[in-house]
Amino acid sequence: MALTPNGSPIFIQLGQRPDEAGPPISGESTYPDDVAARLAESAKEIIARYPQPRSALLPLLHLVQSEDGYLTKAGIAFCANQLGLTDAEVTAVATFYSMYRREPTGDYLVGVCTNTLCAIMGGDAILEALQDHLGIHAGETTDDGRVTLEHVECNAACDYAPVVMVNWEFFDNQTPSSARDLVDSLRTGEPVVPTRGAPLCTFRQTARVLAGLPDDRPVTVPGQEPAATLAGLRVARRLGMEAPSPDQGTPVPAPTLDGTEPAAVETTKDEPAPGPSATVPPKPGTTETDPSTTDSRD
C-alpha cells in the first residue's frame, strides 16, 4: 500500500489506460450458478484438447462471449478460474485481440472492409451509406439490437472487393444499395445467404463455433455457386512465376489454365544474402580501401 508523507494511504483506481483503445470491460462480476455450471461443462471439453490448460484461453474467451455477446467481468473471472490465471492475465490477452468485443453486440456484426483495395472499390462509400441508413456510427448497435456496424481490416477476399462480412461470413462484390438491402433483411428476419460458406447464424452462435464447440450447420448453403478466382494464377503464368516445392528443391511450375503440361520456365533460386564484408568500402574519390578502416574482427 502506498502512503503519503504524513502516513495516509493512497488509493489508486486501477483500470484502462487513458490512451488505450476501446471501452473498459464491464458488466456483472459473476455468473449465476446455473450459467457457470453450464459453461464449465463446455470449458471442460475445450480445455481437454490442450496439453496445458492455459493454452485454451482464446477459445474460452469466445465461449464466454457466446454467453453475453461481449466480454464481461464475469466472463473474465470465469476464464481465470478455469485456467488458474489471474483476472489481469486474462484481461491482458482479451484486450489485445479485436475479435473480442467489449460492448454488447447485436445479433449480426456487420463489418465493412475499408482496407486499401476494398476502399478503392467502394468500401468507404458502403460504410458511409450504412451509417446514414442505420443512423449509427461504426462501432455502434441499432436500437433494436439486431445489427452492430463496424469497419474491418482485410479479410483475404480482395478479388471480390468490396466485401462485407456478417458474423465473419462473406458477402462479396457489394454496393451501397446491396449492403442496405442486406442490413434491412437482417433487421426484419428475412433469410440471407452468404456468397460462400455455411448458413448465417447469430453472433453468439458464431462465438460458440469459434470456441471449437460442435457446429451442425452444412458446409455450404444450397444454391451457392462459389467461384474460385483465377486472377492470381493468370498473373503467375504470364510472369513465369513458380512456387518452391515442399523440400525447397526444384520449383513447381504453376499449372496451366487449360490443364496441359506447363512449359519449362528458367528461374533463379533464392540465394542467401552475402555475409558482412570484412572491410569498409573505399572512401569517396578513392579506388582502394583505406587500411586504417579495415575491420580486423574475423
TrEMBL record:
Family stated for the protein in its record: Belongs to the complex I 24 kDa subunit family.
Pfam family, one: 2Fe-2S_thioredx
Official protein name in the record: NADH-quinone oxidoreductase subunit E
GO molecular function terms listed in the Swiss-Prot or TrEMBL record: 2 iron, 2 sulfur cluster binding; metal ion binding; NADH dehydrogenase activity; quinone binding
Keywords: 2Fe-2S, Iron, Iron-sulfur, Metal-binding, NAD, Quinone, Translocase
Its biological purpose: NDH-1 shuttles electrons from NADH, via FMN and iron-sulfur (Fe-S) centers, to quinones in the respiratory chain. The immediate electron acceptor for the enzyme in this species is believed to be menaquinone. Couples the redox reaction to proton translocation (for every two electrons transferred, four hydrogen ions are translocated across the cytoplasmic membrane), and thus conserves the redox energy in a proton gradient.
Composition bias type Pro residues, residue spans: 273-284
InterPro entries cross-referenced by the UniProt entry: NuoE-like (IPR002023), NuoE_dom (IPR042128), NuoE_N (IPR041921), Thioredoxin-like_sf (IPR036249)
Keyword Metal-binding applies: yes
Biased composition (Polar residues): 286-298
Superkingdom classification of source: Bacteria
Region (Disordered): 241-298
Species name: Mycolicibacterium agri (Mycobacterium agri)
Annotated CDD domains: TRX_Fd_NuoE (cd03064)
Catalyzed reactions: a quinone + NADH + 5 H(+)(in) = a quinol + NAD(+) + 4 H(+)(out)
Named cofactor requirement(s): [2Fe-2S] cluster
PANTHER family listed in its UniProt record: NADH DEHYDROGENASE [UBIQUINONE] FLAVOPROTEIN 2, MITOCHONDRIAL, NADH DEHYDROGENASE UBIQUINONE FLAVOPROTEIN 2, MITOCHONDRIAL
Keyword Magnesium in annotation: no
